[in-house]
Amino acid sequence: MHGSGIPIWFFIGVLLTAYGVMIFSYGIYELATGSYPPLVQLTNLHAPIWWGAVLGLLGLFYVIKFRPGRAR
After folding, report:
1. pLDDT of residue 70
2. What single DSSP character describes residue 3?
3. From CA 6, how far away is CA 23, in angstroms rounded?
4. Long-range contact list for 2-7, CB < 8 A, 24+ apart?
5. Is 9 helix (H, G, I), strand (E, B) or coil?
6. What is residue 38's predicted lDDT score, i.e. its pLDDT?
7. Residue-wise pLDDT tens digits, 27-50
8. Residues 54/20, Cβ–Cβ less than 8 Å
9. Is 39 left (phi over 0), alpha (psi -120 to 50) or beta?
10. 62 neighbors 16 (Cβ within 8 angstroms)
């Protein structure tokens, strides 16, 4: 079954994008409300915002590159 179906990388991209959006939105919420977990070092780096953005962009790359119906 070569050449037909949807590539697994498309689904991986969808998952990475969804997780990235969730983590990024939590990071924005955390930044807006100031509700940081107690005793966490380096909270000023805002890791959820950075990791959410990285995951989202990587996921979008996979979704666009391996989208179904794209001419090869």
Report:
1. 67
2. T
3. 26
4. 6/68, 7/66, 7/68
5. helix
6. 79
7. 999 999 988 877 888 888 999 999
8. yes
9. left
10. yes
3-state secondary structure of 16: helix
Cα–Cα distance measured from residue 61 to residue 3, given in angstroms and rounded to the nearest whole number: 21
* Spatial separation of the C-alpha atoms in residues 48 and 23, rounded to whole Å: 6
Query: Could you give the C-alpha distances from 18 to 31, 52, 65, in angstroms and in order?
Result: 20, 9, 17
- The tokens describing 11, both together, are 């689904």
Structure tokens at 66: 């391996």
How far is the C-alpha of 20 from the C-alpha of 43, rounded, in Å?
19
In order, the DSSP letters of 18-59 are HHHHHHHHHHHHHHHHT-PPTT-TTGGG-HHHHHHHHHHHHH
Query: Among all chains, which residue has been given the structure tokens 């977990």?
Result: 37
Distance, in Å, from the CA atom of 10 to the CA atom of 29, rounded to the nearest integer, reads 29
